[in-house]
Each structure stands twice: as structure tokens, then as C-alpha cells.
Amino acid sequence: MTRAITVRYFAGLKEKAGIAMEQVHTFAVTPRELYRELRDRYAFPLDEEHLKVSINREYRPFSARLSEGDEVVFIPPVSGG
Question: What distance in Å separates the CA atoms of residue 42 and residue 70, rounded to the nearest whole number?
Fold first, then answer.
């Protein structure tokens, strides 16, 4: 069964995907599986160990379980000065 997940993109991931957010229908059970699916779709250059993940505005591990209607944000490293 697929679940509808809202995914928001920031920084380099946003640039690569060409969108700030989308609704994804996925069989992914964890953010790890979801990110791998999206990385293949958009050719994201970063591996998951370089990212943080937020589910419904809380930092969570990549092994957390996803539920229908979750909002997922993959947060890349940000530099500035």
C-alpha cells in the first residue's frame, strides 16, 4: 500500500529537484527508503549520512517509520558567513 507523504526541499536539494515541495505516493516505510527513491529520481548528490531528517517538524532517525500524511524534510548541510 502506498502512502501520501509531503516532502519539502531546501538548499541544494531544492535546486536539484527544481521544486520546493511535493506530495509523493510511495511504498517507502522509512525516510531512508524514501530518500533513496528521491535520490534516484532527482540525482541528489548527497548520501543520507550528510543529511538530517525531520518528520512532522521533529528531528528523527532515518530508520523511523513513516505514516500516511507525514511531512518529511531532508536537511542538507548549510554553510554561510
Answer: 21
pLDDT attached to residue 79: 64
Strands 21-26 and 3-8: antiparallel
Cα distances (angstroms) measured from residue 28 to each of 32, 33, 35, 47: 8, 5, 9, 17
Whole-structure pTM value: 0.92
SS3 58: strand
Which pLDDT band holds residue 31 (cuts at 50, 70, 90)?
Answer: very high
| Alpha helix positions (H), 1-81 | 11-17, 31-42
The residue ranges of DSSP E strands in the chain, in sequence order, are 3-8, 21-26, 52-55, 58-60, 71-75
DSSP β-bridge partners for residue 75: 52
Q: Can you tell me the distance from the alpha carbon of 39 to that of 44, in angstroms, rounded to the nearest whole number?
A: 5
